């Protein structure tokens, strides 16, 4: 791995949207959440992605979030900014803004809704990259939500752009990680359920939507893998899997559950989720408490 890419190794938390009581973006809560993640010891953050509810935010809101993450981080985190919108102009505006703030990398999903040919997707990504021509670019492959999957031919086209360094791979087949790595780029494991498998397949680290709920456990998986203690890492991964299932067992959206878990465990209050995502219902609160206890028990057992 090139020396300048070593900063991308480790555990990168997908950053959550942080709302005030009226549902607007709260700069104060963004900064508090950034500080919380730094204290937990994660390597970096992925801002403005799925976990950040990006498709429900305006361009101005997305800029505001990133500005306050950068302000609070003060160079203590590697910051990857997801800048894709469903049109090229807004995406380029966000890319240029991210570069002006000095982020380490930008990232983008393919355009959603219309199924575009590969040459159109490549132009979209290259246009975005051109607006941040001094910043690393990461392809975000999440076909189950974007409706379009990265292919080897498309990746090879994109790797002709010297700013393209790798893929955040959120497709479920671990084979995809092996495939993209074989093309000479770095790969982040996306599905939290298979962080260990992704690392074994050659991922340099993970970017995960549930990492902030239990960052110490994912850091433990990564460190055990680095030490060659695969069986021990598998035990921690299994515990994380059961917690993920529990987090998904409410009527409220998983991110609403996680945010309440963080608050109950002494972390910052960063609000709920934005409609049409569902906030917690009264009947969810017992399940939230169960999730908190599962996380605390796993921390006690493995840390």
Structure explained in plain terms:
- The protein is built from twelve helices and eight strands.
- The relative contact order is 0.13.
- By secondary structure, the protein is an alpha/beta fold.
- The two termini are 30 Å apart.
- The longest helix is centred in the last third of the chain and has 18 residues, at 230-247.
- The model has no long low-confidence stretch (mean pLDDT 96).
- It has an eight-stranded parallel β-barrel with strand order 1-2-3-4-5-6-7-8, surrounded by five helices.
Provide a brief overview of the structure.
The protein has twelve helices and eight strands.
List the helices and strands and how they pair.
Layout: E1 10-14, H1 27-40, E2 44-47, H2 59-73, E3 78-82, H3 88-101, E4 105-108, H4 118-130, E5 136-141, H5 143-146, H6 152-158, E6 164-169, H7 174-182, E7 186-189, H8 195-200, E8 205-208, H9 215-226, H10 230-247, H11 254-264, H12 285-302
Parallel strand pairs: 1-2, 1-8, 2-3, 3-4, 4-5, 5-6, 6-7, 7-8
């Amino acid at each position: 791995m090139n020396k300048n890419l070593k900063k991308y190794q480790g555990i990168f938390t997908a950053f959550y949207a942080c709302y005030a009581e009226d549902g607007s973006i709260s700069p104060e809560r963004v900064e508090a959440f950034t500080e919380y993640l730094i204290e937990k010891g994660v390597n970096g953050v992925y801002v403005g992605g799925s976990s950040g509810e990006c498709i429900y935010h305006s361009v101005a809101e997305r800029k505001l979030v990133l500005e306050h993450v950068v302000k609070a981080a003060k160079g203590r985190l590697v910051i990857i900014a997801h800048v894709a919108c469903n049109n090229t102009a807004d995406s380029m505006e966000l890319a240029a803004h991210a570069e002006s703030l000095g982020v380490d990398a930008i990232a983008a999903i393919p355009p959603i809704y219309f199924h575009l040919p590969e040459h159109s997707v490549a132009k979209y990504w290259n246009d975005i990259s051109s607006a941040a021509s001094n910043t690393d670019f990461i392809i975000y492959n999440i076909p189950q939500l974007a409706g379009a999957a990265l292919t080897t031919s498309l990746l090879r086209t994109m790797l002709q752009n010297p700013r393209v360094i790798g893929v955040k791979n959120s497709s479920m087949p671990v084979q995809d990680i092996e495939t993209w790595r074989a093309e000479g780029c770095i790969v982040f494991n996306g599905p939290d359920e298979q962080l260990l498998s992704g690392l074994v397949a050659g991922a340099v680290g993970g970017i995960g939507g549930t990492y902030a709920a239990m960052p110490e456990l994912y850091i433990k998986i990564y460190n055990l893998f680095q030490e060659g203690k695969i069986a021990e890492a598998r035990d921690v991964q299994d515990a994380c899997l059961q917690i993920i299932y529990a987090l998904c067992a409410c009527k409220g959206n998983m991110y609403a559950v996680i945010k309440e878990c963080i608050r109950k465990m002494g972390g910052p209050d960063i609000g709920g989720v934005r409609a049409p995502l569902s906030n917690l219902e009264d009947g969810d609160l017992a399940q939230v408490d169960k999730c908190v206890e599962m996380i605390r028990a796993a921390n006690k057992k493995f840390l």
